[in-house]
Amino acid sequence: MAWRGCAMKWIKTELVGSHNTAPRSSRLSFYNQQRCGFRREAKRPDTKKGNVSQETTPSPHEAGTPGPPPPPKVRRLNLFRPLMFTVGFTGCSFGAAAILQYETLKSRVQTAKDEKDSEKLLQGSQDTAHWHDWWNQLSGVQRQLILLMSMVDDVWSSLTEGQKTVTGIIAVNAVVLCLWRMPSMQRSMIKYFTSNPASKTRCLPMVLSSFSHYSFIHMVANMYVLWTFSSGIVSLLGREQFLAVYLSAGVISTMVSYMCKTASGRLYPSLGASGAVMAVVAAVCAKVPEAKLGIIFLPMVTFTAGNALKALMAFDAAGLFLGWRFLDHAAHLGGALFGVWYVAYGYKLIWRKREPLVKMWHDMRSPGAGGSRPGGGPGVGGGGGPRPQ
């Protein structure tokens, strides 16, 4: 009985154990299937995500997931507006120069006439004693100021017409150089006083960059060369024509630089008056090729102006084709070619044909004068104001 009871108890224990283990195994197998099922389902979203990412690659913002950045679009540069600006600005420069020459001569004639009349009125009316009494009535500070102004006037009078004209250009370049040293002006200076074909503002910097220098040494070098050749170029062309050539050369040289940069794909900003200065140097050297030139630090070395022009143009041509980026060789070469072209052909094609514009301006300024000249005398052949050559 005891054995039977033990056997029955063991059988019941086995049955109960088997009964308890059966649900556990079934439960374990169920959850295992669910886990396997969840794993399979977990792979599906991965594939779907991959499919979604592949399908929505063109529009990552709609899918809500960050996609690879699109390749940068290369904007094709259109130089039509800078080209039209160059042509228009050059024409306006020479037109304004012709009108300025007309007004200058008219003012000189009128001033000479007024001075002659005033000398007749004042002759014998005042003596030296009057000016002596007036000087004694001045204070010491006033006398010093008058003496200083007299010295400045003597220095100014000793300058040539070309040096007087270039003094204004040097002053403008010095002011722009000071603006470069102001931190608050950096953004505006880069936008308007540097020329870059890739910039959004391309026309106005073609003019302003010709008066812009970031380095003091760069400005001094350009202005020294301009000062050296100022007397020669103004004696050849006159003050008004020189200003027109200088401004036009700055814009034309920048346009040549734009074209070369766009063709080569090297888009970088440039600034400086080197293009305009090269036009002045080339014009003088082409007009007077036998003139003797020298170097400031090597006065014993002399060479002709024609050979100097050939060497400069060869150097800039080599720098342009070899890709040197220390200087804007395209702008230098463009300015030099414009200077040579102007003294050879441009003077006849542009400046000598200003007569209709001057006549029209004269008629607008004095519509009731008929054929009279600015000086007041009767004109010949309908008049048209002063006609200097």
From TrEMBL:
Per its UniProt record, what InterPro entries does this chain match?
Peptidase_S54_rhomboid_dom, Rhomboid-like_sf, Rhomboid_protease_S54
In this chain the Peptidase S54 rhomboid domain maps to: 206-346
Taken from the record, one Pfam family name reads Rhomboid
Q: Where is this region: Disordered?
A: 39-74, 366-389
One of the GO BP terms on file: signal peptide processing
The UniProt catalytic activity note for this protein reads:
Cleaves type-1 transmembrane domains using a catalytic dyad composed of serine and histidine that are contributed by different transmembrane domains
Write down the superkingdom of origin: Eukaryota
Basic and acidic residues bias spans: 39-49
What EC number(s) does the entry state?
A: 3.4.21.105
Q: How does it sit in the membrane?
A: Multi-pass membrane protein
* Compartmental location: Mitochondrion inner membrane
Cite a single GO MF annotation.
Answer: serine-type endopeptidase activity
Keywords recorded for this protein, A-Z: Hydrolase, Membrane, Mitochondrion, Mitochondrion inner membrane, Transit peptide, Transmembrane, Transmembrane helix
Q: What is its main location?
A: mitochondrion
What stretches pass through the bilayer? 83-102, 203-229, 241-260, 267-289, 330-350
**A GO cellular-component term linked to this record:** mitochondrial inner membrane
Mark out the compositionally biased spans (Gly residues): 368-389
Gene3D superfamilies per the record? Rhomboid-like (1.20.1540.10)
Q: Which family does the record claim for this protein? A: Belongs to the peptidase S54 family.
UniProt-recorded name of the protein:
rhomboid protease
In which organism is this protein found? Scophthalmus maximus (Turbot)
Record gene name: parla
